[in-house]
Structure formats: C-alpha cells, structure tokens
Design a protein that fits this description.
Layout (H helix, E strand, L loop, with lengths): L13 E7 L8 E7 L17 H14 L2 E7 L1 H7 L1 H15 L6 E5 L11 E4 L7 H24 L5 H4 L5 H10 L20
Parallel strand pairs: 1-4, 4-5
Antiparallel strand pairs: 1-2, 2-3
Helix pairs in contact: 1-4, 2-3
Length: 200
C-alpha cells in the first residue's frame, strides 16, 4: 500500500491511529498509533480485516521493527461501561499517542470521530485503514495485540470461545452468555443476550 497524500504538510511527522474491538461484547478496546518511515510500503500492508491472521502477525513484526515509533493504548471493559464505547475508543487512541516515543506533528484517524489531542492537527478518514499506510499499520497492531489478549482471557474462561470469536457477538458467544452468565470481562452496558435464542 502506498499512502495517499493528506491535506497536511507531506514533510510533517504523521501518526496514523486505529482501534480494534469496538463492537465486542467482552474485553478491552485496543488502539494503536504508528509513525512509519518516509516511503515505507509493503504488499501486505492493508486494513487488518483484509489480511489473513498469519499475515497480520507477520506484518506486526515488520511494523514493530521498522516503524519510527509505535504504541498501543487500552481501555478495559469497566471504563467502556463507564464512559461509552465511542469515548473509550478515542481514549484508547489518545493513550497510544501518549505512549509514542516520537511526538507527531499531525494525526490521521480511521473513521469519522475523534477528539482533539493536545494542539496537534488531525483529520479523520472513513475507511482510512485501506487508504493510508500508517492507519493500516495501526489497524494491524491494534488487532493483533487485542487478539493476543483475548486468547489469554480465553484461557481463563474457555466456555465463551474467545480464542475464536475474540469477544465479538457471535451466536455461540451469546448462547454461552445465556447459559453461563457474563464474566467480569463482559461489557455490561452492551446487549449481551440475543432474546431470539430463547425461542428455540
């Protein structure tokens, strides 16, 4: 992927941001911020949803090795319930930006919602993870780091299948909640149970 030019100064240090896990019923939301070196490209670099799990993990190693700076931000399910998932997703991105070793001069974000971060100029781009290399890299890091955490949580509560569904609202996940109740990792502000399950 070759990043498309943004409306910012092309010579500025730009961080791309994206999140993973916004639509899940359980677990934290993760975000990543990535500053790539000028001219960085790779044929597998794309929106994480368009890349196989194997290649995502391979790209994670490449990004973490070659990025100018990268960082992860996390907001757990209790904070999500307290402030809502949109604010939590933005907070996770802010935490990722806080953790960068290099301060960006510009920020570009996947989606259409963000909140100002310090005084740094920013822009949002719908489907930006398929358009800009640094957002795609952030998408891959957020997804792979969160998947790793959900596999760890699966080892604690294997009945919910988090190693497979990663906390997303699959029918099997909802059925497990119906049968066994929620855990301390579930987002209680979300609709956890599909009431249609009771009709069968």
């Amino acid at each position: 992927m070759n990043p498309l030019p943004s409306s910012f100064n092309p010579e500025a240090v730009e961080a791309g941001c994206d999140e993973a896990g916004r639509g899940c019923l359980a677990g934290p939301v993760y975000a990543a911020a990535v500053i790539l070196p000028e001219g960085f490209s790779h044929p597998w670099l794309n929106d994480s949803k368009q890349v196989s799990e194997k290649r995502r993990n391979q790209m994670r190693a490449i990004i973490e090795s070659e990025a100018v700076s990268w960082a992860i931000g996390i907001v757990d399910n209790h904070e999500i319930d307290s402030i809502n998932i949109l604010r939590a997703s933005i907070l996770a991105m802010h935490r990722a930006l806080d953790a960068l070793s290099v301060r960006p001069e510009e920020i570009i974000v996947d989606g259409n919602r963000f909140s100002p971060y310090s005084t740094i100029p920013w822009k949002t781009f719908v489907k930006g993870d398929g358009r800009f290399g640094n957002i795609a890299a952030a998408s891959i890091l957020a997804k792979t780091h969160r998947d790793e955490e959900m596999r760890r949580l699966h080892s604690i509560y294997p009945i919910y299948g988090w190693d497979v569904n990663k906390g997303y609202p699959t029918r099997a996940h909802r059925a497990a909640i119906e049968a066994h109740g929620p855990t301390e990792y579930h987002r209680m502000s979300f609709r956890l149970i599909d009431r249609q399950l009771t009709l069968f």
